[in-house]
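Exam revision sheet. Question 4 asks you to relate a sequence to its structure. Input first:
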Amino acid sequence: MALTLTGTGLTVDKVVQVARGLEKVALDPAARKRIEKCRALLEDKIQKKEIMYGVNTGIGELANVVLTQEQVEQYQRYIIYSHAAGYGKPMPEDVVRAAILSRISCHCHGHSGLRPVVTETMIELLNKGVTPIMCEKGSVGACGDLSPMAQMALVPMGEGEAFYKGERMPGAEALKRAGITPLVLHARDGLAMINGSNVIAGMSALTVHDVHRWLKMSEIAAAMTLEVLNANMKAYDERIHKTRGYPGALESAANVRRITEGSELLAQPGKKVQDAYSLRSTPQVVGAARDALKWARYMVEIELNGAADNPVFFPDEQLVLTGANFQGVPMAFPLELLGTAVTTIAVLSERRHNRLMNPHLNVGLPAFLTKGAGMFSGLMLTQYTAGALICENRILSHPAATGSIPAAADQEDFVSMGMTTALKTRQIIDNAQAVLAIELMAGAQAVDFRAPHKPGKGIQAAHKVIRKYVAHLEEDRPLYDDINKLKEVVESGEILDAVEKAVGTLA
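Answer key, structure tokens:
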């Protein structure tokens, strides 16, 4: 069943279903009527020769250049050509699909002024699996993600490049194979396809989804380390977290308690009165990230359901207003926060991992989790890799959203740099997946050493998945393949799914 797009009710989860699950979409009939009504307003004003930004004027610093009637139609094609000025490798297909979906949702409000056929052709791209090639870099996140979205807009015109059924090809060929009729752009059509921060919006939706799953994985990794180090679980008592009151901390502590339920390892004597911060601060740190994530989701879903356009047409009032609804700042700020949060929690993971390695801190486990320490180095160097990733993430956590560089001869003298924020946040998450994989590899090794005592049912499930891909380290071997493989497993959600099957869905 297709997802009907109305301009409202589009959630992060629905974006994931379309972008990654390839769910089909449909245009709500009422939304189509709004688009038609708005288009009628625009065409009436064109006939009356009223001046409208980006319709019969240039854009940016050239907004004061008024076009002739003959130039108006051709101008939309030239807008797409001139703005398709990106650089770098193609964006992942899920990001491109999410961006197109976000732009279609914007059109549904009936404030964009384009013809319905343009929106319907974009829907065909999604439903028939034609994914335009958009370079990663070039957007400054104001006036929209103009450069990548212009590359997207080339394909409905029968130009540019696209992926179709796993093959990269000219846009015209992709449309032909998919049975999509190329568009000839009319007044406003081109700018209405590109004039919003929709790549940032689509990427933000996927990032919010991925961070939520990563946070749950971080709690699984923490729980495994807590068990093998026989942590004092008083720090996870619900009553402690109720006294402070943060919802995220309560959720995180509850998740860890559920994952470790029934643990024989945590029933052993010899607990410390109070553990190190890296072992008892997880609810406070991950909980803060959970609360930040709620705000990020709130902000992103406003964007997914808003009319981010310029100008904005109001057919009921026969009105056209120009403004700055294309600004990427409302998404850049929450993405910066998420990048900082993930980096901080990855630091916590690396510190726990260090305790597993260190014979002075690991409660009787062998040094570097190898029986042959001296002859063998065990998992010593995995901590180096985690440290390198942490260092990189700290650098990536430096905000891009404060880094405006004026554009368009200072007409666009403040920009969000939200695309830079979005790209670096994705890299932070990618690195952080590997940091968790490294802690989980060490945790699984430690679980083996603690036999015959068993961990809780959640960690038993996680351990079983890890051992499908990474064998116990009896003697030294190259570990790069293990790390890369386990990172992919962490990212895939297989461990999380197994744990949730064993203990129930985590918050």
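Marking note for examiners. The chain has a mean pLDDT of 94.
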